[in-house]
Amino acid sequence: MLGRNSLALLIGMLLDQQIPMEWAFSGPRAIADRMGHDLAAREIASYDPAQFADLLAAKPAVHRYPKSMAGRIQQLAVYLVEHYDGSADGVWEDVGDGAELLRRLMALPGFGRQKAQIFVALLGKQLGVRPQGWREAAGPYGEEGVHRSVADVVDAGSLELVRATKQEAKRAAKK
Asked: What is the dihedral angle through the alpha carbons of 38, 43, 48, 49, rounded to the nearest 10 degrees?
């Protein structure tokens, strides 16, 4: 689903906080299954907020904080409807350069600089979205041969390398 539905990919990235990466990126599939069809920004934006929160909170919950994340997902969907006619691809289609792509991603609700840089790297490394300057816009996440984020995960082995890199960074930060 993540490879064919750009909204699912954005929602997975949005969910990727305070829970394991696999849980976050399986969230869009769970939401789609509960809705009974593929994800669409217009539908999510117009969903009753309490009902959408209940949808995410149903067992097993889509996120550790399902009601809060339901609100964030709806804010993202509303933004996409208002600025990109509901198209997640519109965020990166026809982008002039990497700096513009980063600015567009940082404007999305729930996307700070780090999350936006990781998403730029994900687009460039895995989806071939490579406007001029994308690696620079992605910062350290755009470097080749690193295992820093979801942008570098392509299989179980690379997932373990990303986890090891994150653990080492946490240890270094504590010193």
From this structure: 70
